[in-house]
Write a structure and sequence with these properties.
With about 90 residues, the chain is of the alpha+beta class. It has one domain (about 5-80): GMP Synthetase, Chain A, domain 3 (2-Layer Sandwich). It is about 35% helix and about 30% strand. It is built from two helices and three strands; from the N terminus they run H-E-E-H-E. The protein has helices spanning about 5-20, 50-70, and strands at about 25-35, 35-45, 75-80. It is globular.
C-alpha cells in the first residue's frame, strides 16, 4: 500500500499545531530501507529546536501515526532539525 504523503503531511502538521510551541514542518521524506520504511521529518521553531523537542515530537507523532494507520508495516521515524543553513520548503 502506497503512503499518502498529503494526508501524512496534514497529520504531522496537525500534531505540531496541537503542541502549541510554534513548530514548523520543514521537510518530510519517506524511503524504503531494506523492507522497512524510513520516515524523516525536519522540524524547526523560532529560536531553534532542541533534542528534547525532537524526542517529544517523535513521541507525539508516533502515537498519532499508530492510531490513524497511515503507514502500514514497520517503519522507523527520525525527527531532527533542518540545520542552520536549511530554508523552509
Amino acid at each position: 500500500m502506497e503512503i499518502d504523503k498529503v494526508k501524512l503531511k496534514e497529520k504531522i502538521n496537525s500534531v505540531l499545531s496541537s503542541m502549541k510551541k510554534d513548530f514548523s514542518l520543514m521537510g518530510l521524506d519517506i524511503k524504503n530501507n531494506n523492507g522497512t520504511k524510513l520516515l524523516k521529518i525536519l522540524v524547526d521553531k523560532p529560536g531553534g529546536i532542541t533534542i528534547d523537542d525532537c524526542v517529544h515530537i517523535s513521541e507525539k507523532i508516533t502515537v498519532h501515526l499508530e492510531v490513524c494507520d497511515l503507514i502500514t508495516g514497520s517503519y522507523r521515524l527520525e525527527v531532527s532539525s533542518p540545520g542552520v543553513e536549511k530554508k523552509a520548503v
